[in-house]
Specification:
Elements (H helix, E strand, L loop, with lengths): L4 H17 L7 E5 L4 H13 L2 E4 L6 H11 L3 E5 L3 H4 L6 E4 L5 H6 L15 E6 L9 E5 H15 L6 E4 L6 H4 L4 H5 L2 E4 L8 H7 L4 E4 L3 H7 L13 E4 L4 H11 L2 E6 L9 E2 L10 E2 L3 E6 L13 E6 L13 H4 L1
Parallel strand pairs: 1-2, 1-3, 3-4, 7-8, 9-10, 10-11
Antiparallel strand pairs: 5-6, 11-12, 12-13, 14-15
Helix pairs in contact: 1-2
Length: 336
């Protein structure tokens, strides 16, 4: 069912007020392990309004990876879908359940108290987002409200977003790729059409049903779609643009030709407001040029620019203080 601004304001405000009444204070961390849905959006907005710090927990995490995030982030509260309660066990933090036999969250989101707290400033923490942990235990990147806004502005540049565009959202909100879309309806007049998870077999029929104009690609999604048997639905949709990161050059043109969409590639990382460069010039295989608030140089080991075509270290600097993250949560060594 559609989520209106009015409903989002009422439900997130009620939750923010009730969390404050329970003693949660600005800067407290709240871990959230939920799949995409209306309630998940209301939770994230409520935390942002209350000045609480969202700790998104990957729904695929299990075992030591999950324990590490919860132990390291030390949340004051956990909000989780009922399916994850057994995984979470009995820890130090109280748990608000969503769905199932004990749906605590429903009552917290119900119409009731209005939240009248002061709004957060751009420099305030919005989230602690744990990276994939490819170089060791996952690190918690500190993401401010300003960084989220810059990330969404960069998405608008990558995707050439226009009012009334419809973004098909399969990307989970616990990843920056999904989270950065939340400000877009308010700032650019687009609509987010959200599904619970990615499905290669249902992808184009879902996109068509939602009237989608944009799809997001990341982590092998385009390859999975290309491997599906050709059908008349391949072009029976209104999608104009596939935006995202990691499109291999060899499938770039075949994908565009088969599905009738334009690939718009970008490059970035959570630590630098998600998107550093974007390609709006139709140059196959390129991540494009820097967004207006970043500069990018390729330097050698002595700090000198490398020759064109040579490899170098990517060095990103910004003209907007705060566009690059303040550091990793409780990890000064990694920050340094």
């Amino acid at each position: 069912a559609p989520l209106t601004y009015g409903e989002l304001a009422r439900r997130s405000g009620a939750l923010a007020a009730r969390l404050a009444a329970r003693g949660l204070r600005k800067g407290d961390r709240v871990a959230v392990m939920m799949r995409n849905g209306v309630e998940a959006i209301c939770v994230v907005v409520a935390l942002a309004r209350a000045g609480l710090v969202w700790v998104p927990v990957n729904a695929q995490l299990r075992g030591e990876g999950l324990r590490h995030v919860l132990r390291h982030s030390d949340p004051a509260l956990i909000i989780a879908d009922a399916e994850f309660l057994d995984l979470l066990g009995e820890g130090a933090a109280p748990i608000l359940a969503h769905g199932g036999a004990r749906d605590d969250l429903a009552a917290m989101l119900a119409d009731g108290p209005r939240f009248d707290g002061a709004p957060s400033s751009p420099e305030d923490l919005f989230a602690v987002m744990y990276t994939s942990g490819t170089t060791g235990p996952a690190k918690g990147a500190l993401v401010t409200h300003r960084m989220l806004r810059l990330a969404s502005e960069a998405v608008a540049l990558v995707s050439s977003a226009r009012p009334d565009d419809v973004f098909f959202v399969w990307e989970p909100l616990y990843h920056i790729g999904g989270a950065q879309l939340l400000p877009l309806p308010m700032s650019h007049g687009v609509r987010l059409a959200m599904v619970e998870r990615f499905s290669a077999t249902r992808f184009w029929s879902q996109a068509r049903a939602e009237g989608a104009t944009h799809i997001h690609h990341l982590g092998g999604i385009l390859q999975l779609l290309l491997k599906q048997p050709p059908t008349p639905q391949d072009r029976a949709h209104g999608v104009r643009i596939a935006w995202g990161g990691g499109c291999p050059p060899d499938i770039w043109t075949p994908f565009e030709q088969r599905f009738g969409v334009q690939i718009r590639e970008c490059y970035g990382m959570t630590e630098a407001s998600s998107i550093t460069t974007y390609n709006d010039l139709d140059v196959v295989g390129s991540v494009g040029r820097p967004t207006p608030w970043f500069t990018v140089r390729l330097l050698d080991e002595n700090g000198r620019e490398v020759a064109p075509g040579a490899r170098g270290e990517i060095v990103v600097r910004t003209t907007i203080p705060g566009a690059i993250f303040p550091g990793y949560f409780r990890n000064p060594e990694a920050t340094a």
